UniProtKB/TrEMBL annotation:
Occurrences of domain Peptidase S9 prolyl oligopeptidase catalytic (ranges): 503-704
Ranges of residues in domain Peptidase S9A N-terminal: 34-436
First and last residue of the signal peptide: 1-23
Sorted UniProt keywords: Hydrolase, Protease, Serine protease, Signal
Protein's UniProt name: Prolyl oligopeptidase family serine peptidase
GO cellular component, one term: cytosol
UniProt cross-references to PANTHER family, sorted A to Z: PROLYL ENDOPEPTIDASE (PTHR42881)
InterPro entries per record: AB_hydrolase_fold, Pept_S9A_N, Peptidase_S9_cat, Peptidase_S9A, Prolyl_oligopep/macrocyclase
Domain of life of the native organism: Bacteria
Organism: Pseudoduganella rivuli
GO biological process terms held by the UniProt record: proteolysis
Coiled coil: none
Length: 705
């Protein structure tokens, strides 16, 4: 068989993987026999950064020389900087707040308007008042500020906690902001850079989990200590409320803000999927008697419990994936007479729960298609109603103001239909469309199909394929297969102007896989690929690839794969295990060195997902899906384009760096680009995003056309 990487390369591909070989960055020098590239884990050392700069220079010059690169990049830039996007908002006090980026504000502005103006004006015509200009703040303070979010004290929201990161990482500073005078509060609450979790109790009290100094963080790098901080006192004087263990993932505290239900809670995350919850009452902490795999939260006088495993409580067994409700006071007194608000089946799973003033809104997936339910208690007993939604749309719900209103925003879109924002109300199917996103690409000649691949164990694996209506099933269609498959996250149909402009309009086929490890069918779908069963997700992904080939939608010379983070590891493993199936791989901010992943940044928090490589019995199976250890110099692999970010403080950039170094050493075709700004998302402004995806789609089109 002719190696796939040599087929149909053309002049451009020869530039990438042949003629340019002499321009490679120098091979990294060994550090130790066990891992010669350990030095690349030193994120900001000059040696490592110089290596990154050389790779960046090589990759940008080579991909930038591809035909169509500039046009693709410019088209993407038009999408990400468009002023016609929907300005999504959240209500704080009497205003709607929106964070907005465009060509004039690459770092973005926090702005606000009144509900009346927002609901009557077109997005570009609404009157916005600037609350915080992050570009100006960065210039004034000579800092690389990136917006990280806000938390306001309800209901008036006159005081908010603003979070800002340096370069886009997860660690952030916190500053108190006065929304009346539009200024930071002099002498107000303020925290230095850390992965803090801070929540209001009252105007003068916070529950704070942050870096309190040596020994105050977990092995995952998150806070394990929660304190109560009183205004006007130094952080060092804050009162200890709770202290978790170093082996935990994190600890945090928050307060209910429902009128008349001022309850405080502490959440101790003992692993990524387990937690203990404590009710802080009368100066004492009372542990809630719930399964540690379940999550719990309150709705007025009710306690809602979402199960990740079957639970025998009282005289009944409740199924994994269910949502239960009970009076909070009754539960704390020992009662277990739950009302079941949701119970899954083989095709249905609960995706999200949100609340309005008088209702609980549930979003579910039925064969990976959205539906919505609402539950109310008009006479002290729960009543259910199904909300009318489009048959194939991806739907999400966002309450307008859960303390004061039964209105909610409903956002709907699909692969071919731009997002639209509607105002709905509990109890009614009548909705008012407020905003809609423009069409960024011509979808008239496109169609969407849902198919099912058959996995090695006989399980039906759904996937969506977006293609031209007149597509010829001759195996010659450039096809991009995307996957994730972990942490119970669901891959759902959604509209992407970038994908449309850079791929679909050119005639490319896009495929979204719903492999096990995700949450498309609830906890059971996720647990099917945990730890020693991780190979299941790779087999599912490969089964989808083979199904595409069997249907002659595409063939190996025209099939590429892409994924990010855990998905970056997914596509790396798939390419290493079945290289003959693929002709291009894009692995974004991936995990790769699974022997050391738990020792880098937040890696220790993912042991429940992957396993513990320090245990020989667990390393035995982890090693079989550790890309860094699967590389074989005697095998032929498709070209891989790795991307990462220097400022990513979640998945360490050394994962991608070390893969590139080892692939280069072994003579495999590889490219690398590391954004020396940005966090786990890989880009912090429109220019960076356009450049990144301009390179990605140019690489894919050149390989697969």
């Amino acid at each position: 068989m002719i190696p796939i990487r040599t087929m149909g390369l053309g002049m451009a591909a020869a530039l990438l993987f042949g003629a340019a070989a002499h321009a490679q960055p120098p091979a990294p020098a060994p550090v130790s026999e066990s891992d010669p590239y350990l030095w690349l884990e030193d994120v900001s050392s000059e040696r490592a950064l110089d290596w990154v700069r050389q790779w960046n220079s090589r990759t940008t010059s080579q991909l930038g020389a591809l035909p169509g690169f500039r046009q693709t990049t410019d088209a993407i830039r038009e999408v990400v900087d468009s002023r016609e996007r929907i300005p999504y908002v959240e209500k704080q006090g009497k205003y709607f707040y929106n964070f907005w980026k465009d060509a004039d504000h690459p770092r973005g502005v926090l702005r606000r308007t009144t509900p009346e103006r927002y609901m009557t004006d077109a997005p570009q015509g609404a009157h916005w008042e600037v609350v915080l200009d992050v570009d100006r703040l960065a210039r004034d303070e000579n800092e690389n500020w990136v917006w990280h979010g806000m938390d306001c004290l309800k209901p008036q929201a006159e005081r908010c906690l603003f979070s800002l990161t340096r370069g886009g990482g997860d660690a952030h500073v916190v500053r108190e902001f006065d929304t009346r005078g539009l200024h930071f509060v002099a002498g107000g609450f303020s925290l230095p850079e850390a992965k803090s979790d801070v929540n209001w109790v009252s105007r003068d009290r916070l529950l704070v989990a942050t870096d309190f100094g040596p020994g105050s963080l977990t092995s995952s790098g998150y806070p394990r200590i929660v304190k109560e901080w009183q205004r006007g006192t130094p952080l060092q004087a804050a009162k200890l409320v709770f202290e978790g263990q170093p082996a935990d993932i994190s600890a945090s505290g928050y307060a209910d803000q429902y009128p008349g239900f001022n309850r405080e809670f502490i959440v101790r995350s003992t692993s990524f999927f387990t937690n203990d919850m404590y009710y802080r009452h009368g100066g004492k902490l009372v542990k809630l008697d719930k399964p540690n795999s379940a999550t719990a939260f309150t709705f007025k006088d009710q306690l809602l419990i979402r199960l990740r495993a079957d639970w025998q409580a009282g005289n009944r067994r409740y199924l994994q994936g269910s949502l239960l409700s009970i009076a909070f006071s009754g539960f704390m007194a020992g009662k277990r007479d739950f009302t079941v608000l949701y119970e899954p089946d083989a095709t249905r799973s609960l995706q999200s729960v949100s609340t309005t003033k008088n209702a609980v809104l549930l979003t579910e997936l039925v064969n990976v298609r959205s539906q919505v339910q609402e539950w109310r208690m008009p006479k002290g007993k729960w009543e259910r109603r199904t909300v009318s939604t489009p048959a194939y749309a991806n739907v999400s719900i966002s309450p307008l103001d859960y303390l004061e209103s039964d209105d909610y925003f409903l956002i709907q879109n699909d692969f071919l239909t731009p997002a639209s924002l509607h105002l709905g109300q509990v109890g009614s199917d009548q909705r008012r469309q407020l905003k809609s996103q423009p069409s960024f690409f011509d979808a008239a000649g496109l169609k969407v199909e849902q198919h099912f691949a058959i996995a090695s164990d006989g399980t039906r694996i759904p996937y969506f394929a977006v293609m031209r209506k007149d597509v010829k099933f001759d195996g010659n269609n450039p096809t991009l297969l995307y996957g994730y498959g972990g942490f119970e996250l669901s891959m759902k149909p959604s509209y992407s102007g970038i994908l449309g402009r850079a791929w679909l309009e050119k005639g490319g086929v896009y495929v979204l896989s719903n492999i096990r490890g995700g949450g498309e069918f609830g906890p059971r779908w996720h647990e099917a690929a945990l730890k020693e069963k991780r190979q299941v997700s790779y087999d599912d992904f490969i089964a989808v690839a083979e199904d595409l080939i069997t249907r002659k939608i595409t063939s190996p010379p025209h099939l590429g794969i892409m994924g990010g983070s855990l998905g970056g590891m997914l596509v790396s493993v798939a390419a290493l295990q079945r290289p003959e199936l693929f002709n291009a791989v894009v692995s974004q901010v991936p995990l790769a060195d699974m022997k050391r992943y738990h020792r880098m940044l937040a890696g220790a928090s993912w042991i429940d997902e992957y396993g513990d490589p320090d245990r020989p019995d667990e390393w035995a199976y982890i090693s079989r899906y550790s890309p860094y250890h699967l590389l074989d110099k005697t095998r032929t692999y498709p070209p891989v384009f790795f991307t990462s970010s220097t400022r990513d403080d979640r998945v360490h950039p050394a994962h991608a760096r070390k893969m590139v170094a080892r692939m280069q050493e072994q003579g495999h075709p590889v490219l690398y680009w590391e954004n020396m700004d940005g966090g786990h998302g890989g880009a912090v402004n429109g220019e960076q995003q356009a450049r990144l995806y301009g390179m990605v789609y140019s690489f894919l089109w050149d390989r697969l056309k």
